[in-house]
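Table S2 (text version). Query chain:
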Amino acid sequence: MTTGQVIETVGGTYTVRTASGTLDASLRGRLKRSGRVRDRVVVGDRVELAQVPGGGRVIESVRPRRTYLARRAAGGRVAKVVAANLDRLVVVASVADPPATPGVVDRMLVMGESGGMDTCLVLNKVDLGRGGAAARQLSSMYRSAGYPVMATSVVTGEGMDAFRDMIRAGSSVLVGPSGVGKSSLLNAVDPALELRTRRVGRRSRSGKHTTVSSRLIVLKGGGVVADTPGFTDVGLGDVAAAELDRCFADFRRFLGRCHFNDCRHVHEPGCAVLAAVAGGRIQQARHDSYRAILAEL
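Corresponding structure-token output:
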């Protein structure tokens, strides 16, 4: 039996990096037949390979995941795990062209928190228009919420040294709407990647997908990154309503202080979270995002 990590999936073929090199494999039949979404093999999964007659290899089993990233497609009811066993989720938002939407950023941060990853926010394209002012406003909002934030520009080089240092430490997954510059950021870190990029559409001001399948990329100089397709609509994958409050970093220090043990922090009397919102210790916009996600869940 050979152990390795899935680094790319194309159709029914899984590329697995092992101690002896890179191997292609297919899924064992029982894994294909499993109806459980969590059994889906994704990039980052650590798997056991077995050899079959004729020299081919199959994925015999998947080891328990340390962390994961899950989401739902627009209108979908079933969560889909898209990456596993990564240290960090990096939410990339652009301050202009297309402008950042805090509600979408909040949902992506929840995705990382619920999957057990460290989370941080990159505000890209600060060279555009009034990008600097927008970056300062968003940076203040999310830093006060407890998230690491960095402002970047591939054009001017602002913040790129800090981004390189961060992305070269351990393993990361970059998420964000299409067109925010994820591929451009990675190209700036390692130009040999030559990831495809496209301009934002003039009419919609939204980006076009430039990454069409997930894969793990080993960066020159260190670090591993899961490059995943961009998405604008963010359906939360595997978050229980009762656990949502713990996925908001700015809520956590107030949890356990509410009058009711099952407080949902919406309108209950004696709620410590609501008191923190009223007192300015939690921003109203963040609580609005929480309520919107909770209603959906």
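Notes on Table S2: Confidence is low (pLDDT under 50) at residues 200-211. The helical segments are 29-33, 102-114, 131-145, 160-167, 182-189, 272-278, 284-296.
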